[in-house]
Design a protein that fits this description.
This protein is an alpha/beta fold and about 300 residues long. It is about 35% helix and about 25% strand. Strands 2-1-3-10-4 form a five-stranded mixed sheet, sandwiched between helices. It has a five-stranded mixed sheet with strand order 7-6-8-5-9, with helices on both faces. The mean pLDDT is about 90.
Length: about 300
């Protein structure tokens, strides 16, 4: 059996695709995987802030189109880049094991960050959550691939990156403070991979199901249900993180103003992850003022 895997060309995207190939080899060693590299809108424009480019989707649309048009059979993504709704004709067929979902402050420990420090990040969520705790911090934009962002770190007191990206690429900065979710709640599905295929491709669906991680899938499904209920993407400061505790999913969700002055957070648990995600979102929207907060942005 031969399948074609569409992916972005970044080092992290290629690592994820190679990781999927390795997982498939453990269950179906006869499968031959051809890598199809696709350039996305987010890759072409590395300077415009993501929220101005349309937020979620700028790193995945062209990869998804490659599968829909038959130029590839599966699409490999960082799950955090996916819009809340899967395009018609595609299905999220596989979520492999999840890496560390936390964010990392590179260059300075959070507790040691000086008054009026300058922190660089391209994420409105990161800015909002950190500003909520430290209104004195000044934020600068940061775009580019992992290597480019790390090269720019010396120009700031600290930069913020995803722990999963550093771990997967084997990068170990001299100072890297992994921030607890109580400080900086992760982006929806951060640290997880997502693999899509065509809805009617039963062969690909069966193959991908064999390498799915049930724990990661339950957590990601709960977080994505939270995002879908809000009807928003990464152009707004929204965060959610779910973990399994026994047979229950424990989900924390948050909505904030871009400047971090207001941050609404709610945590609940349930055995039904998607219902839980929707319930947490509805609580924040209807009972905590979240709807008015999002409408004002």
């Amino acid at each position: 059996m031969r399948i074609r895997a569409a992916t972005r060309g970044s080092a992290l995207a290629r690592w994820q695709t190679d990781h999927l190939i390795g997982l498939l080899a453990t269950v179906r060693p006869e499968v031959d995987v051809e890598v199809v590299v696709v350039e996305t809108t987010g890759d072409l424009d590395r300077t415009t802030p993501l929220e101005q480019m349309g937020g979620r989707g700028v790193f995945v649309k062209e990869v998804q189109v490659a599968v829909l048009e038959g130029r590839a059979d599966v699409a490999v993504h960082s799950a955090k880049d996916l819009p809340a709704l899967t395009p018609e004709g595609l299905v999220l067929a596989c979520v492999p094991g999840r890496a560390d979902a936390r964010d990392v402050l590179v260059g300075c420990r959070w507790a040691d960050l000086p008054e009026g420090a300058t922190v660089a990040t391209g994420s409105i969520r990161r800015r909002a959550h950190l500003a909520h705790l430290r209104p004195d911090v000044v934020f600068a934009g940061l775009r580019g691939n992992i290597g480019t962002r790390l090269e720019k770190a010396a120009g700031f007191d600290a930069i913020v990156m995803a722990a999963a990206a550093l771990d997967r690429l084997g990068i170990r900065p001299d100072v890297a403070d992994r921030l607890d979710p109580s400080v900086l709640l992760p982006q929806v599905a951060q640290g997880a991979m997502a693999v899509e295929c065509r809805t009617d491709d039963e062969g690909a669906r069966e193959l991908l199901a064999a390498v799915e991680d049930a724990v990661a899938r339950r957590s990601v499904d709960a977080e994505r249900a939270f995002l879908a209920e809000l009807g928003a993407g990464c152009d707004l400061p929204i965060a959610a993180y779910a973990v399994l505790e026994g047979d229950e999913v424990y989900l924390t969700g948050a909505i904030s103003s871009p400047d971090g002055a207001v941050l609404l957070r709610e945590a609940r648990r349930s055995a039904d992850g998607p219902s839980l995600g929707r319930a947490v979102a509805r609580h924040l929207l209807d009972e905590r003022g979240g709807a008015e907060l999002l409408e004002s942005q």
